[in-house]
Write a structure and sequence with these properties.
Blueprint: H1 2-24, H2 32-41, H3 46-56, H4 64-74, H5 77-101, H6 106-114, H7 116-135, H8 141-149, H9 155-179, H10 184-208
Helix pairs in contact: 3-4, 3-5, 4-5, 4-9, 5-8, 5-9, 7-8, 7-9, 7-10, 9-10
């Protein structure tokens, strides 16, 4: 028990240290141009810094899609996709580890008591719930991963679902960034594909929730 508590303390301290570092470098911001300027300033290590920022954005609750688009602006599409995928695997592994570490705390009990229907839905549809949460453009992917991790899924299956489910949207987000430097029609095509995926995931979501999702999910 003491060792478990020590790990939790170390995680919280590490989180505070990383947030402080990001704050001191003015990287906790909604202005994406500041992040681009920071990366371009460190051009020799731009790929490494992009992975680090795209990974640790989970600590300040920044959606991964923002960095996927930024990657498309800064790098060629294939490189943007590769770097985004690497950071996604690392960040979602961190979320898995944190959820596992805090699985027997009051945080889990809070979710179980406040969202009983949500918990049943996750247990029943586990990996499908995770896949739809990642595929849906408007879903909070990190929160979905965190909640699914609470059910203690197999790590290899968990990370495999994350990789496969991220491929379509990650490609499209990377192409959105590229489209800013190309034609407007190119952007329309990419956005249209995203809307098609949104329609599909909403339809599937309605199906697994019997066409009427619990109120706490709205």
């Amino acid at each position: 028990m003491k060792k478990s508590n020590n790990i939790k303390v170390y995680i919280i301290l590490l989180w505070l240290i990383i947030v402080l570092i990001l704050f001191r470098n003015n990287l906790i911001t909604t202005d994406y141009t500041i992040i681009i300027k920071f990366l371009n300033t460190h051009e020799d290590y731009i790929s490494l810094f992009f992975i680090l920022l795209s990974t640790f954005r989970i600590l300040i609750f920044v959606p991964g899609s923002i960095f996927m688009v930024l990657g498309g602006i800064i790098f060629p599409p294939l490189k943007a996709f590769t770097l985004s995928m690497i950071s996604m695997i690392i960040s979602q592994s961190i979320i898995f580890f944190i959820a596992k570490t805090f699985s027997n705390t009051s945080i889990k009990n809070y979710f179980l008591n406040k969202y009983p229907n949500l918990n049943k839905l996750i247990i029943k549809n586990n990996y499908k719930f995770l896949s739809l949460g990642i595929l849906c453009p408007v879903a909070p992917t990190d929160a979905v991963s965190f909640l699914v991790s609470y059910t203690k899924p197999n790590y290899l299956k968990y990370i495999s679902v994350i990789i496969l489910s991220n491929i379509p949207m990650m490609l499209l987000y990377s192409l959105i960034g590229e489209s800013f430097k190309s034609s407007f029609y190119y952007l329309i095509i990419v956005v249209s594909l995203i809307l098609i995926i949104l329609f599909y995931t909403k339809k599937e979501w309605s199906r697994i929730t019997n066409a009427s999702p619990p109120k706490e999910l709205l």
